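Researcher: Go.
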Amino acid sequence: MTNTDDIRSEGMSPFKRAALVIGGVLIAVFALGVIVGYTKAAIAGGTFGWKSLLVYVVAAAVVLGGLWMIRRGATKFTLSRSPKMREYQLVVLGTCLLGAVLGGLMQLGAPDGADAGLSVFSYNAPISPAVAAVMLASLPLLAWLYYRWHKTADEHEQAAYNFGAVLGIYTYFFASIGWWVAWRGGILLEPDGLAIFWAVIIVWSIGWIWHRFR
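Model: Structure:
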């Protein structure tokens, strides 16, 4: 088993460090997306004014907060001396970086409009064909990163991943069949496949992190 002590930050639990880094990345990417989307909408509508300045100040503060969280979580972070563990760390960092870049590209490729700043949540809204092509072309790289993760993760990490996967499968089973029955009974709207997908990913991630750092 690889030694995970090499990735601990002094005086901070691995769970807290991971939560700070991941949360900081998500917050910073979201705030940057809001800035880009709002700018596109303001240019299209010619609505720059003092309210725009307020939006930029708040969004910039959120970006700085996200960067602070990343810096705090990565304090005294060093790559392992073990080749296998070092590759594992680089794969995790590469996957996070690729996710952040793709999230930013999706926001850049969103259509202009009054709600462009929130297009990160409009997962059925159209995006630029060029951005879509870049995102599709990145899937083989993402698949390779996943493959290398499975080759380098230690037994404890694999067990945590599998635990989260089981929870994710159960979430998919109960959410999909439950929503489908509720829809047919007139209780809920038609099932949304992507909403169920994200529910699975969230439950999977929570189960993975909980089992990994408990």
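Model: The chain is about 75% helix and 0% strand.
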